[in-house]
Structures are given as structure tokens and as C-alpha cells.
From TrEMBL:
Its cofactor is Ni(2+). GO terms for molecular function: DNA binding; DNA-binding transcription factor activity; nickel cation binding. GO terms for biological process: response to nickel cation. Residues 64-138 form the Transcription factor NikR nickel binding C-terminal domain. Gene3D superfamilies: ACT-like. Chain A, domain 2, Met repressor-like. This is Putative nickel-responsive regulator. Binds 1 nickel ion per subunit. Transcriptional regulator.
Length: 145
């Protein structure tokens, strides 16, 4: 990429937006609450979040997800089931972290790459196992700029 193209790509454009007062107040409350330095930073992040959501909804490019689960270590054969699923899907399972929270509860984060439908399916399969007490998928994707 030439330096001209690079500078165009990195260029930041200032534009004005008209908002009803209540919506602007809401925006400003979020800026303070979430510790943003400016309205612009919050708006940029909101747009990026929407882009990630739409990338998942479109479903036509590879994305990444982090599945967080809490499960009962003593549930019969559950640990083995979770491992079996991960081994079967080894192309998609990039990494896992396991934390023993207490005598009974295990916390595991599973980083998964693939098409959205594949990640959703794998997450549902693991999250639906008997003895999995909590399951939440964080959806991520590449975001330009
Ligand atoms: Ni454990």
C-alpha cells in the first residue's frame, strides 16, 4: 500500500450530527459512565460494535468467539464430554483456559475460530451439556480502524 493510500485510510473526518436533546444526554451519561475521553470515542466504539454484530449476522466471513462456561466438576463424565467435543472440533478450538473455582465449580474459556454458524453450533453443544451451569458466548471479529 502506498503512503497516499495509507494516509487516506487513516484520515479522520469530522462531521456534525443532529440529535434530540434526550438522546444527547443519554450519550453523555454513557461517555462519563464508561470513562470515555470524548463523545467521538464512544460513537466510534458503538459503530464498531454494530459492525461486529452485522458481521456475525451476515455469516460469510471467519470470526472468533470466546465461550465462557462454568460447570460441575463432579457431574459424571461431563469433563470427558467437553474434551471430546473440543477434540472433534480441534480445527475451530484455538485455546482453552481452565480455572478450578472451588471444590465443585470449574470455569473454562474456549477460544473458537470459524464461520459464525460453526461457532454458534459448537457453543450450543457445549453449553447444553448436562451439568454446565453457565454458558456465554462473546462474539468478536476483525474490525478495520
Ligand atoms: Ni477444574
Amino acid at each position: 500500500m502506498s503512503s497516499v493510500e495509507e494516509s487516506v485510510r487513516e484520515e479522520t473526518i469530522r462531521f456534525s450530527v443532529s440529535l434530540p436533546r434526550p438522546l444527547l444526554d443519554e450519550l453523555d451519561r454513557r461517555v462519563v459512565k464508561k470513562g470515555y475521553a470524548s463523545r467521538s470515542e464512544l460513537v466510534r466504539d458503538l459503530i464498531r460494535e454494530r459492525i461486529v454484530e452485522e458481521t456475525w449476522e451476515r455469516g460469510d466471513v471467519e470470526v472468533a468467539g470466546v465461550l465462557t462456561i462454568v460447570y460441575d466438576h463432579h457431574q459424571r463424565e461431563l469433563t470427558q464430554h467437553i474434551l471430546d467435543i473440543q477434540h472433534r472440533q480441534y480445527i475451530h478450538v484455538v485455546a482453552t483456559t481452565h480455572v478450578h473455582m472451588d471444590h465443585h465449580n470449574c470455569l473454562e474459556t474456549i477460544i473458537i475460530r470459524g464461520m459464525p454458524v460453526e461457532i454458534e453450533r459448537l457453543s450450543l453443544e457445549i453449553g447444553g451439556l448436562r451439568g454446565v451451569r453457565f454458558s456465554e458466548l462473546t462474539r468478536a471479529s476483525r474490525v478495520q480502524n
